[in-house]
Design brief:
Order of helices and strands: EHEEHHEEEEEE
Distance between the termini: 45 Å
Low-confidence stretches: 1-5
Helix content: 10-25%
Largest sheet: 4 strands, parallel
Mean pLDDT: 84
Number of strands: 9
Shape: elongated
Structural class: alpha/beta
Length: 119
């Protein structure tokens, strides 16, 4: 891939990443300077669950466990929306009011486990 942080090669490819958890964010940040990146998640913030236990005993830490996605990417875009449908053969992601064409797709939807104390 190539390019420099000041001039991303958006013409080279468009990568859509569905899911903005630890994996999706990591992937988006690494690709941000090399191609057009669109990160999609149903939440508009990242919940740093590891830090949540600290926030239980020290409430002032709560604001540090919820990190907004607005300024996450330098060049790419974040879409706060739900994916309704994905068509791999047409290379399209369908959101509630929009469709996005892509060259590559990353499914980083993650997993869910009971939050500590919810068993």
């Amino acid at each position: 891939m190539g390019g420099s942080p000041s001039s991303p090669q958006y013409e080279s490819c468009h990568v859509v990443i569905i899911g903005a958890g630890y994996g999706g964010i990591s992937c988006a940040l690494k690709l941000d300077r090399y191609c057009k990146v669109t990160l999609i998640d149903a939440k508009d913030y990242f919940h740093h669950s590891v830090g949540a236990l600290r926030a239980v005993v020290e409430p002032s830490f709560l604001k540090m466990t919820l990190i907004p996605y607005d300024n996450l990417l330098s060049y790419g875009t974040f879409k706060h929306d739900c994916v309704c449908r994905l068509n791999i053969s047409e290379k399209k992601v369908f959101l509630q009011n929009e469709e996005i064409k892509f060259d590559y797709i990353v499914l980083a939807c993650g997993s869910s486990v009971p939050f500590p104390g919810n068993y």
